[in-house]
Design goal:
The protein has 489 residues and is an alpha+beta fold. The chain has 15 helices and eleven strands. It folds into three domains: 176 residues, Formiminotransferase, N-terminal subdomain (Formiminotransferase-cyclodeaminase, Chain B, domain 1); 103 residues, Alpha-Beta Plaits (2-Layer Sandwich); 182 residues, Four Helix Bundle (Hemerythrin (Met), subunit A). Helix content is 53%, strand content 15%. A hairpin with a 4-residue loop joins strand 9 and strand 10.
C-alpha cells in the first residue's frame, strides 16, 4: 500500500492539553503513526507529523480537523504566524512507491469531506491546486482569517474549491494540498529589530528574486527578545539548509547583526543534514555509508532478517502464523529481488538507462516493504485473535469496534501486498523487451512469483472480508479493489 506523510498545522501552540486532545483523535487508528508533535507559543501554532497508508491517514487527519474545529476559536487567536483556519494547512507528501498524483487524490478526498461534514471551506494548494495562483500557499492565505471572512462571499477569486463561499465562524478555512518534502527552518538574529528580519526575508525568498524554492518571512519573537527569519525550504536539493543559512548571514551583515542560532521545526531528511555537514567540514569525497549509525542499522537489518530455512520452518509449524499472507509477501520479496538483478545486468553502467535505474530503485524499496509485510500480516492475524477473545469476554460496542478495526487491518495488509505486487509486476513487464535476452528465464520467474504473491494475498483478503461482512462492516471498497486487482493477476 502506498504510504504518505501528512503534516497538519493547527492554530494552537500554547495550550498543551488542547493540542493533545486534537492529536489523540487520530492516535489509535491502525495504519497511522504520529511521528512528532511540535508547538510554538510565539507563533501559537503546532506542527504534527503523521505517516501511514492512505485510508487510515485520511480518517485520522479528518478526526483531528473535526476536534480542532470545536476547540479552537480563531476570533480569539493571536500569534506571529499567519493563519486562516483552526487547522490551517494540511499537506500530503508521497513516500517510497507513492506518487504525487495519489497524494493529490487524498487531498481532494479530504477536502470534499471536510467541506461536506464540517462546513469548513477548503482551498486546494501546491500540487493539488486547481487554479495557478493557488499553488503558492501565501496567496491562498492572503488576508488571513479576518480578511478572507470579509471577501469570500463577494470576490469570485476567493471562492473555495470545496464548500460554500462562507467562512466557518470559528474554525475559518483550510488549505489542503500535496507537495514534496519541505524543511521548516528558522534563523534567530542577534537583534530584536523585526524590520531587519523582514528585509532579509524579502531578499532571500524566491518570489522576490532570491533563492529558488525558498519561502521566508520575518517575525518578532517577543519571549526571546529576538527577530526571526522563518523559512520553508520547499526543495532542499535545490536550496539546501546551509545555503539558506549562509544567505541569511550574508544579508544580516549588511545591517550589522549576525545569526545567533537556528532551528528545524518538524522532521527533516537525514540527507539534508549530511549535505550541511559535508559543506561545513569540506568533505568533498565522503561516503555516507561510512557513517557509524548507518552501518549499525544495516547490520541490524541483516541480522533481523530471517534465513529462508528459519522462515520456512515457521511456515511448516502447526501454528496459525505465519500463514498464507506472510508467504505471499515473502514470495513478492523474492520476485522483487530477481527483478532488481535483471535490471542491474540490463543497464549499461557507462550509459545508464534512467527508466531502468528508476524501476530498479523502486523494486528495492518494494522488496523492503514486502519483507515488512511478512511480519505485519502475522501480527494483524494475532490482533484479530486477541480482539475476538476480548469481545467474547466483555461484549459491547467498544469491543465490537476494536474487533472490526482488527479485521479491517487484517484485510488491508494482504491487500497492500497484492496492490504493490501487481503494480511493480506491471511496470517490470513494460520494460521486458529492453532487458537482456540471457536473463529471460529470471524475468519470467520474477513475474510468475509476483502473480502467485498477488493471488495468494487476495485470497487472504477475501477470507477476512467474510468476517467483516458477518460483523456488519462496510466492505464495498475492498471488494471493488480486490476485483480490480484480480483482473491483473
Amino acid at each position: 500500500m502506498s504510504r504518505f506523510e501528512c503534516v497538519p498545522n493547527f492554530s494552537e501552540g500554547r495550550d498543551a492539553a488542547r493540542l493533545e486532545q486534537i492529536v489523540a483523535a487520530g492516535r489509535d487508528i491502525p495504519g497511522l503513526t504520529v511521528l512528532d508533535v511540535q508547538r510554538d507559543s510565539d507563533h501559537n501554532r503546532a506542527v504534527v507529523s503523521l505517516v501511514g497508508d492512505g485510508e487510515p491517514l485520511l480518517e485520522g487527519v479528518f478526526r483531528m480537523i473535526r476536534v480542532a474545529s470545536t476547540v479552537i476559536d480563531l476570533n480569539h487567536h493571536q500569534g506571529e504566524h499567519p493563519r486562516m483556519g483552526a487547522t490551517d494547512v494540511v499537506p500530503f507528501i508521497p513516500l517510497g512507491e507513492a506518487t504525487m498524483a495519489e497524494a493529490v487524490k487524498l487531498a481532494e478526498r479530504l477536502g470534499e469531506r471536510v467541506a461536506r461534514e464540517l462546513s469548513i471551506p477548503v482551498y486546494l494548494y501546491a500540487q493539488a491546486a486547481r487554479r495557478p495562483e493557488r499553488v503558492d500557499l501565501a496567496r491562498v492565505r492572503e488576508g488571513q482569517f479576518e480578511g478572507i471572512r470579509e471577501v469570500i462571499g463577494t470576490d469570485p477569486a476567493r471562492s473555495p474549491d470545496f464548500g460554500e463561499p462562507k467562512i466557518h465562524p470559528t474554525a475559518g478555512a483550510i488549505a489542503i494540498g500535496a507537495r514534496p518534502v519541505l524543511i521548516a527552518y528558522n534563523a534567530y538574529l542577534t537583534t530584536p529589530d523585526v524590520a531587519v528580519a523582514k528585509k532579509i526575508a524579502r531578499t532571500i525568498r524566491a518570489r522576490d528574486g532570491g533563492l529558488p524554492e525558498v519561502k521566508a518571512l520575518g517575525f518578532d519573537i517577543v519571549d526571546r527578545h529576538r527577530a526571526q527569519v522563518s523559512m520553508n525550504l520547499t526543495d532542499y536539493r535545490t536550496t539546501p539548509i546551509h545555503r539558506a543559512l549562509e544567505a541569511v548571514r550574508r544579508e544580516a551583515l549588511r545591517y550589522g547583526v549576525g545569526v545567533e542560532e537556528s532551528e528545524i521545526v518538524g522532521l527533516v531528511p537525514e540527507d539534508a543534514l549530511f549535505d550541511a555537514a559535508e559543506y561545513y567540514l569540506q568533505l568533498h569525497a565522503f561516503d555516507r555509508a561510512a557513517v557509524l549509525e548507518r552501518k549499525v542499522r544495516a547490520t541490524d537489518a541483516r541480522q533481523a532478517s530471517e534465513s529462508l530455512e528459519s522462515f520456512t520452518s515457521r511456515l511448516a509449524a502447526r501454528t496459525p502464523t505465519p500463514g498464507g499472507g506472510s508467504a505471499s509477501a515473502a514470495t513478492a520479496a523474492l520476485a522483487a529481488a530477481l527483478g532488481e538483478m535483471v535490471l542491474a545486468y540490463s543497464s549499461d553502467p557507462a550509459r545508464p538507462d534512467a527508466e531502468l535505474s528508476s524501476l530498479g530503485a523502486s523494486l528495492t524499496d518494494s522488496r523492503r516493504r514486502f519483507l515488512a509485510l511478512v511480519e505485519e500480516d502475522a501480527q494483524s492475524y494475532e490482533d484479530v485473535r486477541s480482539a475476538r477473545k476480548a469481545r467474547k469476554a466483555a461484549p459491547g460496542p467498544v469491543a465490537d469496534q476494536a474487533y472490526v478495526q482488527a479485521l479491517q487491518r487484517a484485510a488491508e495488509v494482504p491487500l497492500s501486498t497484492a496492490r504493490l505486487a501487481t503494480d511493480v509486476a506491471r511496470r517490470l513487464a513494460v520494460v521486458r523487451s529492453r532487458t537482456k535476452p540471457a536473463l529471460e528465464s529470471d524475468l519470467v520467474t520474477a513475474l510468475a512469483l509476483f502473480r502467485a504473491a498477488a493471488e495468494g494475498a487476495l485470497a487472504n483478503v477475501e477470507i477476512n472480508l467474510i468476517d467483516l461482512k458477518a460483523a456488519r462492516a462496510s466492505t464495498e471498497a475492498m471488494e471493488q479493489e480486490t476485483a480490480r486487482l484480480r483482473t491483473g493477476v
